[in-house]
Specification:
There is one protein chain. About 9% of the residues have low confidence. The protein is mainly α. The chain has a two-stranded antiparallel ribbon. The protein folds into two domains: 209 residues, Up-down Bundle (Growth Hormone, Chain: A); 175 residues, Growth Hormone, Chain: A (Up-down Bundle), CATH 1.20.1250. It is globular. The chain is built from 19 helices and four strands. Its main location: membrane. It holds the Pfam family SLC52_ribofla_tr. It is found in: Cell membrane.
Length: 452
């Protein structure tokens, strides 16, 4: 295998969700400067779900016009759109427009919607494109996809996003105040080491790197030697094109070994899905697990991460977020060397990861006074739980990707569609719980007192 191809596949995967992930980690610096304030995360959730119009279009095209749509022009378009949108965001994110008598961050919301379209559509285009390469490179792609969350988080950590300093409330006003200290503390967010504009320029540069990696994956001679036969998607071609490709394939002089009747019966397709390796029931199980795992990892648990971690301190929150992001590519590397395709093992890992997620959800519901909040062991447990949660379910996602990759091009298209569907259902379910019903409560980082 080519190390260059592995490197390019990783960089290509990093461009899949880097823009939206970057937007989320930068929120603590963005929201104080815009009129929407902390309602922006709710708006972003809605915009991301509206952006699923992109994956819907791609999936319907593959369903009703198989073989007509080539992913490569679509990828060039969406990555180029991502470069332009993040570049414009660096200069216009603070601009406001009067709408209905109120100031609104129209440029920020519009560009965020375009970035959501880019990232959501990558789920149903990047994965099928990876079918052109050997199976080993798909795991590397998933590692890059994991890094699309880790890299912006590390840059934001260096930037100093969300670092809080508790200061006596009587000292935050006029310096010459003579008010007696009543013990009240006020949370002061430390200034960032570099601006939001520079951060968005960094995201634009990341999208440029993704585009360059994609160009090289298409045209570099070293990658061409690793590429599979162009008939990789012959199963999705229109009938007349498929017949032509099969006739060309039949002209090769290679002889096929004779297959005994017993082996022929054993190799009969078990369902009409993909190559028929799995029965209809097993295919349904795989897709249900895929939707469930992505709902938890992409929407349900991220929406309560701050509630589950911040009661244990700002360091616990940043450590959990960073180490969980590291766990994603680690799971991909484990899957690269130990790809266990057993559906029973997949179900066991899914139940285990769901158990870790249940603990995280319980701590978020108990916020601002979760279990062991005054103990160092409580911090260690919540950080470790986040790591194991992401590690176990990320492994499941990669294994499902490997399984569906072997089932053919259309299977990976449906894989991306189910990923988006699961994420959408999770986001829609959590949005009212977090935004309207007030089930989860955040405490004051400096003044919340919990019973010992």
């Amino acid at each position: 295998m080519s190390l260059l191809t592995h490197f390019l596949a990783c960089l290509f995967g990093m461009g899949s969700w880097v823009a939206i992930n970057g937007m989320w980690v930068e929120l603590p610096l963005v929201v104080p400067e815009i009129p929407e304030g902390w309602f922006l995360p709710s708006y972003l959730t809605v915009l991301i779900q509206m952006a699923n119009i992109g994956p819907l279009f791609i999936t319907l095209m593959h369903r009703f016009r198989p073989g007509v749509l080539d992913e490569r022009p679509v990828i060039y378009f969406i990555v180029g759109l991502g470069i332009v949108a993040t570049f414009l965001l660096a200069f216009f994110w603070q601009h406001t427009v009067t709408v209905g008598g109120s100031l609104r961050s129209v440029p920020l919301l519009l560009l965020s919607f375009l970035l959501s379209v880019v990232d959501c559509t990558s789920s149903v285009t990047f994965l099928p494109f990876m079918m052109r390469l050997r199976p080993q490179y798909l795991t590397t792609y998933f590692a890059g996809e994991g890094l699309s969350g880790l890299v912006p988080a590390l840059v934001a950590l260096i930037q100093g996003v969300g670092v809080v300093h508790c200061q006596n409330a009587t000292l935050t006003g006029a310096a010459n105040t003579s008010t007696v200290d009543d013990g009240k503390l006020e949370a002061i967010y430390q200034p960032a080491k570099f601006s939001v504009q520079i951060f968005f320029m960094f995201l634009s540069a990341m999208m440029v790197v993704c585009l360059v990696a994609f160009i090289l994956l298409n045209h570099h001679p070293a990658v061409a030697r690793e590429r599979k036969n162009d008939l990789y998607f012959s199963g999705d071609l229109a009938p007349e094109k498929r017949d032509q490709s099969l006739s060309l394939h039949a002209q090769t002089p290679e002889q096929k070994p004779m297959i005994s009747p017993l082996e022929s019966t054993r190799n009969e397709p078990r369902s009409s899905f993909g190559r028929g390796t799995y029965s209809t029931l097993e295919v349904g199980f795989i897709f249900i697990v895929l939707a469930w795992v992505n709902a938890l990892t992409n929407a349900v648990l991220p929406s309560v991460q701050s509630y589950s971690c911040l009661p244990y301190g700002n360091k616990a929150y940043h450590l959990a977020a960073t180490m969980a992001a590291v766990a994603n590519p680690v799971a991909c590397f484990i899957a690269m060397f130990m790809p266990v395709r057993s559906l029973i093992f997949m179900g066991f890992l899914t139940l285990t990861g769901t158990g870790f997620g249940a603990y995280i959800m319980a701590m978020a519901a108990l916020s601002p006074c979760p279990l062991l909040v005054h103990s160092g062991s409580g911090t260690a447990v919540i950080v470790l739980t986040w790591i194991l949660f992401v590690l176990s379910l990320s492994y499941v996602k990669v294994i499902i990707g490997i399984i569906l990759r072997d089932e053919g091009h259309s299977a990976l298209v449906w894989c991306g569609a189910v990923v988006q569907l699961g994420s959408m259902v999770g986001a829609v379910a959590m949005f009212p719980l977090v935004s309207f019903y007030g089930i989860f409560k955040s405490g004051d980082p400096c003044n919340t007192k919990c019973p010992m």
